[in-house]
Amino acid sequence: MIGLFVALLVATGTPGVPPALAAQEAPVAITFLDVGQGDAIVIRAPDGRFAMIDAGRGSPLRQLTRLGVGELALLIATHAHVDHIGGLDDVLTARPVDTYLDNGTPHTTRTYLELMAHVERLDVRYLQAVPRSLLLGGVSLEILPLPSTTEQQNDRSVGVMLRYGDFSALLTGDSEREELDFWLDGGLIEEVTLLKAAHHGASNGFTYPFLDAAEPELVVISVGEGNSYDHPRPEALAAYTSYAHRVLRTDRDGTVTVFGYSDGRYDVVLGEDPYDELNRSDSGAGSDRYVDVGTSASDGENAAGLGALLALAVHADARGDDADNLNDEYVVIENLSRTRIGIGLWRLCDLSSRCFRFPPGSSIAPGRRVVVYTGYGSTDGVSFFMNNGRPVWNNNGDEATLLDTGGHVILRHVYEEE
Ligand SMILES: [Zn+2]
To answer: Whose CB has fewer CB within 10 Å in the chain, the N or C terminal residue?
Structure first.
């Protein structure tokens, strides 16, 4: 998309930026604040400048202070609903803001009218969401066009395509199908590293064609615990899980930060002090931790829950000599649930820790099974091959363990000679 390039000029040297992150390899940090039911996203450019998209229903100032957010080069209101703009007034009061951008679609609520009056009173540059690229350090924020066919606030959510080298993120407010289709038809949806689930994981916040195009590696759902909308919906979760290696939720995971590196890699850090956490990790920028995602099971409890949805059986005794018939030795894993279950990067191990790792993006369709053969072959997503030259599963007893990417045991199947 060719857009008007606007350089955001804001003094550098923002307080609170750890020196280690100011180095050459500094990532862009996208933090999804845990603000209950709503959206509030803080973006920190590699040069330490900040932008923010939405501010939740209440005040996010405590979190901004904890993150060390001083001046905001850019403040975006995706649309005028209170779970997105409720906290903006406080942000505008307490932090200098250079540029304010919204969808230019008026709303009738007092929250909206007071907010706009506040924006007018301040010395803030106001921009409307038309296709344009805003530059924040080395990060490009492409503002997507709004559909002109509707005045609905959700379907006129400001969409932002963030790019930092090979890392990209699509941030879409509460877009529903009409706006998602509009972008898709316009050829604006490309593969992204990170997708913020539109509309808090609502069933109208995704379509399969949209996800086919976006093919996110990572999905973050900004959603409040026990919200009255029943967000996120199971069908949305199933869809996200079938595409993304990892689906994170602010209601379960709290504040979620994704550090994106220009070579396309990323790290996920949970908690309210993500910048400190990254510094503490000895691996430094662009560690291999990004490989180690592949499931929505981020803790042992979730992992155990997933295990109940799967069944595993081992066919250890191949016809004839096992060594001559390696693909008659296999493991079957069945999905007993009505939801697609992502198993990308999970491991299947025997008692002596010989393991097979499922390729990224692997999943088992609802009610279906996948088979892992011992011998050689290439996968079609249903049949997998360990590509071993020798038998793996002992005929006289062994143990098959399925582990998620965090190393949690999902299932353990012990068998003995009969
Ligand atoms: Zn919302």
So the answer is: C
**Domain ranges within the chain, ordered by starting residue:** 4-293, 301-416
**Topology of the domain comprising 301-416:** Immunoglobulin-like (2.60.40)
**Sole residue written with tokens 């096992």:** 322
List, in order, residues 6 or more apart from 337 with CB less than 8 Å away: 309, 366, 367
The kind and range of the H/E element at 311 are strand 310-315
CA of 72 to the centre of ligand 1 (A): 22
Q: How confident is the model at residue 359 (pLDDT cuts 50, 70, 90)?
A: confident
* Superfamily covering domain 4-293: Ribonuclease Z/Hydroxyacylglutathione hydrolase-like (3.60.15.10)
How far apart are alpha carbons 52 and 67 in whole angstroms? 12
pLDDT tops 60 at residue 300: no
The alpha carbon of 232 and the centre of ligand 1 are apart by a number of angstroms equal to 12
- Minimal CA–CA distance to 350: which of 326, 331, 368? 331
CA distance 338 to 344: 18
Q: What is the mean pLDDT of residues 271-284?
A: 70
CA of 102 relative to ligand 1 center, distance in Å: 15
Tell which wins on pLDDT, 23 or 385: 385
Please tell me the distance between residue 131's alpha carbon and the centre of ligand 1 in angstroms.
Answer: 22
pLDDT at 417: 74
- Are 26 and 57 within 8 A, CB to CB? no
Mean pLDDT of 409-414: 90
**Confidence label for 114 from pLDDT (cuts 50, 70 and 90):** very high
As a whole number of angstroms, the distance between CA 4 and CA 99 comes to: 15
Residue 226 alpha carbon to ligand 1 centre in Å: 15
The mean predicted confidence, pLDDT, of the chain is 86
Model confidence band, residue 177 (pLDDT cutoffs 50, 70, 90) = very high
Cα 132–chain centre separation: 24
Torsion sign (Cα): 358, 253, 83, 72: negative
pLDDT at 236 over 60: yes
Residue corresponding to tokens 């997507």: 144
Report how far residue 201's alpha carbon sits from residue 199's, in angstroms, rounded to the nearest whole number: 6
Distance CA 361, CA 276 (A): 30
